[in-house]
Hints:
Strand order of the largest sheet: 2-3-4-5-6-7
Amino acid sequence: xxTLARATDTLTRDALTVLQPGFAGTTAPDWxxxxxxxxxxxxxxxxxxxxxxxxxxxLTAQLRAEREDVLVAIDEEGGDVTRLEVRTGSSFPGNHxxxxxxxxxxxxxxxxxxxxxxxxxxxxFNWAPSADxxxxxxxxxxxxxxxxxxxxxxxxxxAAYVTGMQSAGVATCTKHFPGHGDTGIDSHHAMPRxxxxxxxxxxxxxxxxxxxxxxxxxxxxxxxxxxxxxxxxLPATLSRRILTDLLRGEMGYDGLIVTDGIEMRAIAGTYxxxxxxxxxxxxGADAICVGGGLxxxxxxxxxxxALVAAVRAGELxxxxxxDAAERVRALARWTAANRPDGGRSEDTADGDVGLRAAxxxxxxxxxxxxxxxxxxxxxxxxxxxxxxxxxxxxxxxVAAELRRLLPGTETGAFNGADAGSEALAAAGSRRIVAVVxxxxxxxxxxxxxxxxxxARPDTVVVEMGVPRAEARGxxxxxxxxxxxxxxRAAAEAIAGV
Length: 497
């Protein structure tokens, strides 16, 4: 092989190494296995790849038969954002519920058990936790994914989550740097902009990331957001000032930097995924998350070719690409060295910790003396459009859990200007349980509750989002998230179990 051919081969392998692509199906396609042999070092799992923990374990075994040290990544925050339990709802409350309890030992235990289950399924890299301080209550994409709006609270729980999950041998990826909490736009759709000065960012948004770095997080995920105080021209994912000068230089971080999904419109719609990929690596990112609907070999080829072309055009230093690829391999070595052995996983199991945490997170407000329900009610779910991070595949609410406790419970989903009157008509004479999600962000939802409570003041209200609106109803429950266990905790309170 000539020197040029060897150099080209190394360049191509490095370009493949920094990609973290998804794929379609519940078994690995031939093209993915072939690319693993050619240098691809990471594979991303999404809800479309999951039917059960046993199936995921078989899938990851199939991947490791081709490349033993492959990084298997997943977006498993617990709570509203779950992939491992995408069709049933999570066994773990999300960050906002853990922040409401504010017991760092509990957060550590929840993360450790979630990590144990991921490790048992062969997953060793989790794009979590969210370290965003939810300072904008109208944030459409973070919300209950955040531990809260208080900087110190978010920092201590981020550190506890990192410690807990990595104790199970699963690398954490703290996100979305330098902080997505003060945005009013979802970066899946457009480019958010945060217009605060550098002092506010340092004292508010960066503190939880400093805590994560101190706790040893193995990875940090960049946000597709424009922060003019840090870089007036480029979003964080593409900014050398933010990724290299700030995160690596000022904050002393030496682990893997991975981008948020490169196909998200904030990058794809402005720069295109090929140019965005090359710019991100040049700025200091080490790995490119390729999620969403981009799940084919053609996308992997386009992105690896774009990286090689950028090196040859002098737009991306070859040494920077090589450094990024080495950081990916270093993380793979860490996960391989920390992979739990056969018996350890079950020995450390704490299967009920998620439910215990969800029960502790419920906040109850009673307007008058409340008698638990003994007859099956009508559950009116006022359903907003789900953001892309959460998705619409995962069931939520309290109806399924109330039906288990009070057989015969009926339910319906409502949305829009006439939601209140439609729910009243559907409920008939049954007691109504109204379930909302971020009432404060949806005027139509608040109006629907107005209609219900005017006609039926004995209505029970369950808020499963961020509880910013006034508590009202004969009984008001704030669960701080819509995970399956949050629904169960609320149903138990309604039925007096």
